Amino acid sequence: MSRRAGCRLALATMSHCEQTRAILEALEMTSTFDFVATRDDVEQPKPDPEICVLAAHHLAVPPKETLALEDSPSGVKSALAAGLSVVAVTTPLTRDHIHQSNLLPPERIVDNHAEVIPLFDRLLGAGD
Fold this sequence. Notes:
The chain is α/β, with parallel strands linked by helices. It has helices spanning 17-26, 50-59, 73-81, 95-101, 116-125, and strands spanning 10-12, 35-37, 67-70, 85-89, 109-110. The strands form two sheets. It has a three-stranded parallel β-sheet, with helices on one face. Strands 1-2 form a two-stranded parallel sheet.
């Protein structure tokens, strides 16, 4: 998806570094991201925008040109506060909370994971 569009990728997670590294290794994704920020890299957790600002800075991409994929209301709040464009991909645990939060318009909320890549491709193609 984004690699085809020439985009850089960052992971901004509230998991700790050791846990993040283990998961990325288990999923064989250690080289997927250009930058990885974890809970250990910031003073404040999400919904504070610190980790999103850090990720955008390390990618050398202005926040307004950064598209965030988030799965929780606190992640959406963090990305929005950092000035990022946001798409929420819900999980069974976060679906109701994200929809009820009214943080994003419905077209920016994805409940079916199969719709993520087509949506990103549309947004990237539209320059959003």
